[in-house]
Design brief:
binds nicotinamide-adenine-dinucleotide; 8-stranded mixed β-sheet; 6-PGluconate_DH-like_C_sf; alpha/beta; NAD; Rossmann fold; EC 1.1.1.336; 41% helix
C-alpha cells in the first residue's frame, strides 16, 4: 500500500467527481491530467455546458488552461448524471441552514448525491467525501450505504485558499479519515497521484473535526481582532497600529478586523461544531461577534454622516453610499456569505441609496455599477473588500474620484488605502478600528 498508482492502472481507473464547482472542477481536471479516466458530474446543465465550451467564469489563475488540457486529453468528460466508476469523489455544497433559529449544516445536496450513486455502487468501490461536514456524518452515510454493498468510504476535507486553488491543491498537506484503515489507504493512493504535500491518515470523525477546527481557529481569532477594533474605537487608539505592535511578539499572531466574515468556509464551518456539541460556547460567541460587524459598520457610517451634517441640513434628499468591493475577500469573484450583502441590506433599510462597485464579483443580490456611476454625486465611499484595485489608485485617479463626489468621505473597513494620499485630494478618511480619527 502507499505506492503511487502506476500509469497503466490510472487509465483503467474510472473516477466520478460529483459537483463541479470551485473544488470539484479543479480536482476532476487535475486527476484527468494525471491520466485517470474522469467523469465530471454536475446537476446544473448550464454549468456542464459552460465547462464543455470553456466559457465558465473564473478568477482562478490557470484553471481554464487546466480544464482545457483535461478535456482535450480525452480523460475528462463532463455530464449531468453519474455513471458506474471505481471511485466517487463528492464535492457538492454543504451550506448552512437556519432551523428554529439555530444554524446547521444543510445536507440536502450531499444526500441527493448519495441517493443518485446508490444504484451504481458495486462491492469494492471507494467513495471520498470532500465536502465539509459535521463530525459523525461520514459514519452515518457509511451505515446507510454499506447495508447492501461492501464499499469503502473516506473523508478528505479540502483546505485550499480560493484565488490560489491550483497551487494549494497540489502543495497543501491533506488529512484523510477513513471509516476503516483500508478506505483511508485507498483514498491516499488517489491523492498521491498529484499531491506533493504530506498526507496524514486518521479516522473519519477526526478528519471531519480537523477541517472544522482549522476554520474555527481563524474565526475565533478574527472575532478577537474585531472585538479589539470595537474597543479601540471606544478608547481612542488605532487598532491596526496596536495589532501590528502586538504581533511583534514572537508567539502572538492576531488576525485582521473587518466588516464581518464571509465565504463558504470560515463563516459557516464553526456552526457545524456548534450543532454537535453543547460545549462550543466560545465558538458560538465568536461567530455571533463576527456576524455583528456589518451592523457595526452601518452604525459607523450613520455616525460619520450625522456628525458631518450641519443641523440646518435637516432631513434632505437620500444620501448616496458607494460600496467598493462586495466579494467576501480580496481579488476573488465569490460573493457567498459576503458581509457586504448585510451591510447593503441594512443601509437600504436605513434609507440610503446604495451603489456597489466591484469588477471582480460574479453575481450579487443588488445591482452592480461601473466606477463612474457608483461615485457620481456620492456622499461616501465605503471599502468592504481588499481588492488590489483600490490600493492601486494613484493621485490622478483619486483627484478624478474626488471631483465626482458630493461629499469627500471614505470609510475603509480593511485598512488598505494610503490615508495621506486620500487626504491630499480632499477626502476625510475614516478607518474601521481607528479610534484616533473616529
Ligand atoms: N470553495 C472553497 O474554497 C472550499 C474550500 C474548502 C472546502 N469547500 C467545501 O467543498 C464543498 C464544495 O464547495 P464548492 O465551493 O466547490 O461549491 P460550489 O457551489 O462551487 O460547487 C458545487 C457544485 O455541486 C453541484 N451539485 C449540487 N448538487 C449536486 C448533485 N446532487 N450532483 C451533482 N452536482 C451537484 C452544484 O451545481 C455546483 O456546481 C463544500 O462542502 C464546501 O464547504 C469549499
Amino acid at each position: 500500500m502507499g505506492e503511487q498508482i502506476k500509469s497503466e492502472n490510472k487509465e483503467n481507473k474510472k473516477i466520478c467527481v460529483i459537483g463541479l464547482g470551485y473544488i470539484g472542477l479543479p480536482t476532476a481536471s487535475m486527476l484527468a491530467i494525471q491520466g485517470f479516466n474522469v467523469i465530471g458530474v454536475d446537476i446544473n446543465k448550464k454549468r456542464v455546458e459552460e465547462i464543455k465550451n470553456l466559457t465558465f467564469k473564473t478568477t482562478e489563475k490557470d484553471l481554464m488552461t487546466l480544464v482545457k488540457g483535461a478535456i482535450s486529453s480525452g480523460n475528462l468528460k463532463v455530464q449531468t448524471k453519474p455513471e458506474k466508476a471505481d471511485v466517487y469523489i463528492i464535492c457538492v455544497p454543504t451550506p448552512c441552514i437556519e432551523i428554529d433559529g439555530e444554524k446547521k449544516c444543510d445536507l440536502t445536496y450531499l444526500n441527493e448525491a448519495m441517493k443518485n450513486l446508490r444504484p451504481l455502487l458495486e462491492d469494492g468501490n471507494l467513495i471520498i467525501i470532500e465536502s465539509t461536514i459535521p463530525p459523525g456524518t461520514t459514519e452515518e452515510i457509511y451505515n446507510l450505504l454499506s447495508e447492501n454493498k461492501k464499499i469503502h468510504l473516506a473523508h478528505c476535507p479540502e483546505r485550499v485558499l480560493p484565488g490560489n486553488i491550483l497551487r494549494e491543491l497540489v502543495e497543501n498537506d491533506r488529512v484523510i479519515g477513513g471509516v476503516d484503515e483500508t478506505s483511508a489507504k485507498m483514498a491516499k493512493e488517489i491523492y498521491e497521484s498529484f499531491v506533493v504535500g504530506k498526507i496524514y491518515l486518521t479516522d473519519a470523525k477526526t478528519a471531519e473535526m480537523v477541517k472544522l477546527m482549522e476554520n474555527t481557529y481563524r474565526d475565533v481569532n478574527i472575532a478577537l481582532a474585531n472585538e479589539f477594533a470595537k474597543i479601540a474605537e471606544e478608547i481612542g487608539i488605532d487598532v491596526w497600529e496596536a495589532i501590528k505592535l502586538a504581533n511583534q511578539h514572537p508567539r502572538v499572531n492576531i488576525l485582521k478586523p473587518g466588516p464581518g466574515v464571509g465565504g463558504h468556509c470560515i463563516s459557516i464551518d464553526p456552526w457545524f461544531i456548534i450543532e454537535k456539541s453543547k460545549n462550543a460556547k466560545l465558538i458560538r460567541t465568536a461567530r455571533e461577534l463576527n456576524d455583528s460587524m456589518p451592523l457595526f459598520v452601518v452604525e459607523k457610517i450613520k455616525k460619520i454622516l450625522n456628525n458631518m451634517d450641519n443641523k440646518k441640513n435637516n432631513k434632505k434628499e437620500k444620501e448616496i453610499i458607494s460600496i467598493f468591493g462586495i466579494t467576501y475577500k480580496g481579488n476573488v469573484d465569490d460573493t457567498r456569505e459576503s458581509p457586504a450583502e448585510r451591510v447593503v441590506e441594512e443601509l437600504i433599510k436605513e434609507g440610503f441609496e446604495v451603489r456597489c462597485y466591484d469588477k471582480y464579483a460574479n453575481e450579487f443580490k443588488y445591482p452592480l455599477y461601473d466606477l463612474d456611476s457608483a461615485i457620481e454625486n456620492s456622499d461616501m465611499i465605503v471599502i468592504l473588500t481588499d481588492h488590489d484595485e483600490y490600493k492601486s489608485f494613484d493621485k490622478e485617479k483619486l483627484t478624478k474620484i474626488a471631483s465626482k463626489m458630493k461629499k469627500k468621505v471614505i470609510l475603509d473597513t480593511k485598512n488598505i488605502i494610503d490615508r495621506n494620499l486620500w487626504r491630499d485630494v480632499g477626502f476625510k478618511v475614516y478607518v474601521l478600528g481607528d479610534g484616533k480619527n473616529a
